[in-house]
Structures are given as C-alpha cells and as structure tokens.
Amino acid sequence: MTTDTRTPAHKARLLPQLIKFGAVGAVGFVVNLLVFNALMLLVLVNVPHKTLFSTAIATLVAIGTNWVGNRYWAFSGNRNENATREGLEFLIVSLAGMAIPLLCVWVSHYLLGYQSLLADNISNNVVGLALGTVFRFAFYRWWVFSPERTAARAARRGAISPGAHVPARTTREKAPISGAPLAGAPDRGLVGD
Description:
Blueprint: H1 9-12, H2 14-43, H3 50-74, H4 83-111, H5 117-144, H6 147-157
C-alpha cells in the first residue's frame, strides 16, 4: 500500500500566490505614496482638507492598481468573467481592509491613550497594516478570486475555461460514462495497481 504524499493543488499554489499578492501590494503602496504626495504638493495645494481628499483619492487609485495586479497576475487563474462583480467585491474587501488600520489607531489612540506619533505609526503601519493584509489576502483568495467559485461557474457552463482551477480527480474517482457497461469499475490505467 502506498501513501499519497502529494500536496493538494490549492495548497501548493498558496506560497507563489502569496508572494505575488505581496508584490502587487508593494506596487499599490508605492502608487498610494506617489499619488498622495503629488496631490498634496502639486494639485491640491490651496484646497481645504487636502489631507483627507489626498488620502481618499490616493487610496482609490491604489485599490484600482491592486485590482488590476491581483486580477491579471496574482489570482489570474481564478478571475471572474464578470469583471464588474469582481471589481465591486474587490472594492468591498479593500475598503473593509482599509478600516482595520483605522480601528487599530482608534483603539490605540483613544481607548488605550497612546497618543504619540510613534504609537500612531505602530498601530497604523505595523499592526493595522499586518492585520489588514491578512484580511485582504484571505478574502481575495476565498471570496473574490475563489477557485471553488471558478470551478462552480465552469461546471454550470458545462465546460472548463482555460486557466480555471478544478480539483483533480484520482484515477479511482473518474466519473462513469453513462450507459457504459463497466461504468462502476475503477480505472486502473494500462498497468493496474
């Protein structure tokens, strides 16, 4: 008796997908930083509340950049054919992920009373960023770009689209061909077990 030591496909793809997600996030961070500073220093110089406007605009541009990077690279094998629905789901998860650092700052600053710039940076850019990143990756992987949803859509269509992740069957689990005389017999290949 042999033991199957193969890693399931969804687990084997986790690390490369996580690395790609991190790279897309790093690009989004740079885009956010550049857009924010360009708006603050060049575009919205004399606008009241320019910090809030710059933050909102830079965040939305970064979310758009991250959606393109995640859709076409990090989660490309699992993207939804309905780009509008996927984009809306991505926006929901991104905005919820953006709320996590805000909550961390609120707890640290107002509830715990740590009101220094260092404490605000740690709660926002260390704790909040880490928790928000875990939250976003989990929801992007298991909701927005879910392999199970991709497989279900393919099954509903009756065909498998290129690049779609469909769980592989073992040779003993092959679906029987209806009307075949040996439909219930296991497929042992050319050689057998």
